[in-house]
Amino acid sequence: MPEIKVTPLGAGQDVGRSCILVSIAGKNVMLDCGMHMGYNDDRRFPDFSYITQNGRLTDFLDCVIISHFHLDHCGALPYFSEMVGYDGPIYMTHPTKAICPILLEDYRKITVDKKGETNFFTSQMIKDCMKKVVAVHLHQTVQVDEELEIKAYYAGHVLGAAMFQIKVGCESVVYTGDYNMTPDRHLGAAWIDKCRPDLLISESTYATTIRDSKRCRERDFLKKVHETVERGGKVLIPVFALGRAQELCILLETFWERMNLKAPIYFSTGLTEKANHYYKLFITWTNQKIRKTFVQRNMFEFKHIKAFDRAFADNPGPMVVFATPGMLHAGQSLQIFRKWAGNEKNMVIMPGYCVQGTVGHKILSGQRKLEMEGRQILEVKMQVEYMSFSAHADAKGIMQLIRQAEPRNVLLVHGEAKKMEFLKQKIEQEFHVSCYMPANGETTTILTNPCIPVDISLGLLKREAAIGPLPDAKKPKLMHGTLLMKDNSFRLVSSEQALKELGLAEHQLRFTCRVHIQDPRKEHETVLRVYNHLKGILKDYSVQHLPDGSITVESILIQATAHSEDQGTKVLLVSWTYQDEELGSYLTSLLKKGLPQST
Amino acid sequence: YRDLHTFELQAPTRLIEWARGSRVCVAGYGQSDGNEILQLIPPPTLLTKETQGLCPERDFKVECGGFSERPVYSLKYVPDTSLLVTSGPPDSSLQVWQVSAEDSDVIKSVSPIATENGTGQSWAKIATISARAPWVLHGSRLDRVQITEVESRKNVYTAASRGSEELSGLAFLDCNTLLLCCATGQLCVADIRQPQNLMEAVSVPSAPCSEQWCMGTRHGAQGLEPSSQPVARLSSRGLLTLTDLRKTSEFLALAKARVPSPGSGAEFLCVSWAPALEGCLAISGFDGTVHVYDTQSWDSSGREAEPIFVHKGHAFGGASGSGDPPLVTVHTWHLQKPRTLLSAATDGSLHVWDWVQPCGKC
């Protein structure tokens, strides 16, 4: 049976370091190549040795696909391609290709420069890795080779995030990466057509949550910022340049405008330009509303948000600053944090997950005395808040996506097994499909039923249509033919044509059966009895009594002889060709029942 | 408001029940099949005493869920066990479920408790207690009230038949005393040690048009004589009566709530006492609002009462404005936080809100 094999190397039943291996119709595809942000050792990379112990990865894998630029989906890519070794194509969308190297370089800097690690990829490796990348457009079918094709769909979540369909012949798999089914201020919602893949691989991180409405989150965020600014404090929001930052900027800008607030809002220099540049470049990736208003004014050119200068941090009075990097681990955001930490009127709002070891992580865990370089202790008096605006699909969203795509099977990643049993049952009940949840290293095999297209010869079709009852759309009709498999094509033809094409001679098969009948009379009388009997029953068939004493029913021959040892028993020889098998067997069983007394 | 959180459930619920460990349970009632029972862990903001604005975890988490073949109209946890009981149309039988959150997140169905189903019986109202053993009190009509031991399925008590009025609610006042409320407004008290007696309490003021009634009893008042707690009754026209069960010949208080008339039916009428605020009760089921009243100033005149707070969230929250405005199906008070309530509506919304007393006390 044809099958699709899926093995998560990461993100099977845990969050972080997404990496899934898919084998479909002889092709091997790696989906995402992420880094686990919680570990500092080899555990942060997926276990690539699983793929092939000694063979070359380039020979084994047909391609690698990256869904979006978050490090838990692409963080291990340079390590994989340059340190482990892979030279095949890497596919991702244009925005992902543009933004990925920036994040990778940023992360590399922290890991190597700040933490002093040595076994890590270099800047050159990142560059070499990106040279292997082939960028794709949405809804564009890309031929990886003659048989394997891929297509990207919009996933929402972050700029450039995509869901990928991988197709070989008529078997296909759809991988969602991270996606979001509800649109937000700067991105639209994920969408896919009714592509009916054999398998849908979906993330289920938020499947068990019922989320607080976005309005409430935003309202609380704005309230906090407003309160701080009203009492003269400063608000620091450490962000990654791209991603939620834009969402929050739009939110604040709108709020400032509505409330007519005067306190300045700043966004890190350098990153503002780059971010704007990317959003302008990839405007088609943002949502409808932004595209519509973009004509009048650039949504990302803000009235109230200005470029930041280092010196501003010392200005008195309230202000809000967006600074990078996002986990307060280095650079500008850390500098500002150190300046403002001692004042309890100030506030820092952490917008997302912070890796262990970073200042962001420490203060979120409650630490209020931090050791900085040079053994200086920094006392944190400013308010520390956390808020997550990340966009993932919840249970309702997952069901929506499954309803849109109509897969035959579903596989869930990114969740804990125990907590996914309910969702698994829900999916199985509502859609009547099988749902799988493999752990890392566990291979799931999904059986597929591919359709094999076969051409039928016109002559055969006409002939079969003429026999028996008329063709009816509602009733299946059995027909006979010969299947010829030649040169990668399948044809159904009549046996005669097949024999001709293949240059084979037709063999005749003839069956003969002996039926014993108790009849003491003479042979020709027995024959007459048989003839009358058959003539009476087989009214639709041509039953003939030939002068030589034999009976024919269509092309079946019946002859009678006396039994050699017992005159009272007559032996009927019934003989037919293979083509008349059905009628022949029927006649035989009819005769075996014996002749009626009267004839 | 001091705080307001809005959530959206995949399917609307008409019950919100508290379970051990501050869990909350909701269940679907819409379809004939495939309704979900969800046991939720509220976000930490709701569990702590102080209100935090921004909190890492602001979401409800589905701890476990089950699938019910029938709409779930009523659900009660059986104390001291890992079981819960549900009821719903088309008949008055009860379904029993097992919750084992540590092992798996599926609420499994255990065999149902059947009841004799006469014609015209609707779904059973239920109440549970674990006094001598885990019991469930159930019945859809006054003449079909019984107590069944949950684990053995033995019938422990059957109430003496009085009439065949439909019940709108029932409760255990203590381990021996039951309180039954009919849809017509009649209250009956029964002592399970004397199955033949069924004491009738004061009836309600008669009305020109037929109205439906429901009741609310006070829980959790430790150490106090249960029958000393006034019982509130709410009618579909907005009338509220308070009755002291020790003096059933008269009302303690009578008031009229300001509700749209005529009411949209009595399907979701709900009245409940605040567990931590003396004399405060909340009503809902008339429209998309929940009213909170302070009954301490009420008398028996039947005047219109002014609510001390009205939650309007459900009327606005709703989506595109397609179809009818949402109707609040149920509300309940937080067991520890004195002014926090949870309410749900027909559009699937679930709100958690904490109100501020507009002036002075409370």
UniProtKB/TrEMBL annotation, chain A:
Compartments (UniProt record): Cytoplasm; Nucleus
Taxonomy, superkingdom: Eukaryota
Any one GO molecular function term: RNA endonuclease activity
Keywords linked to the UniProt accession: Cytoplasm, Hydrolase, Metal-binding, Nucleus, Zinc
Presence of the UniProt keyword Plastid in the record: no
Biological process, per Gene Ontology: snRNA processing
SUPFAM superfamilies, per the entry: Metallo-hydrolase/oxidoreductase
InterPro entries assigned: Beta_Casp, INTS11-like_MBL-fold, IntS11_C, MBL, Metallo-B-lactamas, RibonucZ/Hydroxyglut_hydro, RMMBL
Claim: Zinc is one of the keywords in the record: yes
Signal peptide segment: none
This protein's name: Integrator complex subunit 11
The species this protein was found in: Dryoscopus gambensis
UniProtKB/TrEMBL annotation, chain B:
SUPFAM superfamilies per record: WD40 repeat-like
Gene3D superfamilies assigned to the protein according to its UniProt record, in alphabetical order: YVTN repeat-like/Quinoprotein amine dehydrogenase
GO BP annotation list: cytoplasmic microtubule organization
Origin superkingdom: Eukaryota
GO cellular component: cytosol; spindle pole
SMART domains: WD40
Transmembrane region(s): none
Protein's UniProt name: WDR73 protein
Lineage start: Eukaryota, Metazoa, Chordata, Craniata, Vertebrata
Gene that encodes the chain: Wdr73
